[in-house]
Amino acid sequence: MAISIKSDREIELMREAGRILAITHEELSKALHEGMTTYDIDKLGEEIIRSYGCVPSFLNYQGYPASICVSVNDEVVHGIPSRKHFIKEGDIVSLDAGVIYKGYHSDAARTHGIGCISEEADKLIRITKECFFEAIKEVREGAHVGDISRAVQTHAENNGFSVVRELVGHGVGANLHEDPQVPNFVQKRRGARLQAGMTLAIEPMINAGGQNVKWLDDDWTVVTEDGSLSAHYENTILVTKDGCELLSVQ
Ligand code: MF3
Ligand code: CO
């Protein structure tokens, strides 16, 4: 499939989707506390998203049973919220959310520390976010997807962390997942050339230990093979002539 170039009208709708998603993350980060369950986080997230007239895009996506992916500690992504899973001090909690506004998607993730967290956890969260900001320095018309991948991988590995290979960023728009794939590691090909009007979800998933991951029996939850911590940071961005615009940041 060709990579879609969004019209001005589509970009306007994606700006609004992104604005609402940024508010959702802001509200969730304020509400997050020790003793709540991952189910509580999901219900609150869904409520906020619906209060803005949006639909949570993950709910029932390929059978995913919730609105917010909540992934704790060694869980990389796609953790399933549960009434039995209580958040505790020292945890790191990745929240991944998607909203649909008038048919257009925005996709973003944040990782939060609960109370006092280890030095390693703190560094992992910080470096993962920095990986995203290093990546967007490369984005402009004429750059290639591989420039994003290289920036993420370089920053993660220079800091002693590793990059997940099995899951990648992606184009986003009228669909949650569109072309191109946006890997967080360098491949042999430099990948598609970026053009103004493309919209991408750039999402570093970084492990404190080794790069390998496995799937739990629920067929969704991805965890690190070695049990090490993992963090996730993601925004939906618009490629412009000379850079990019962050759509899911307030
Ligand atoms: N941000 C995640 C992704 O891009 C969202 C997963 S949606 C789910 O794949 F519904 F599949 F969980
Ligand atoms: Co995504």
Question: What's a quick, concise take on this entry?
Answer:
The chain is of the alpha+beta class and 250 residues long. It has four helices and 15 strands.
List the helices and strands and how they pair.
Layout: H1 8-31, H2 38-51, E1 55-56, E2 68-72, E3 75-77, E4 92-101, E5 104-113, H3 119-137, H4 145-158, E6 162-163, E7 169-171, E8 178-182, E9 199-202, E10 205-207, E11 213-215, E12 222-224, E13 230-232, E14 235-239, E15 244-246
Antiparallel strand pairs: 1-4, 2-4, 3-12, 4-5, 6-10, 7-8, 7-9, 9-14, 10-13, 11-12, 14-15
Helix pairs in contact: 1-2, 3-4
The chain binds 2-amino-4-trifluoromethylsulfanyl-butyric acid and cobalt (II) ion (CO).
Cobalt (II) ion binds next to loops.
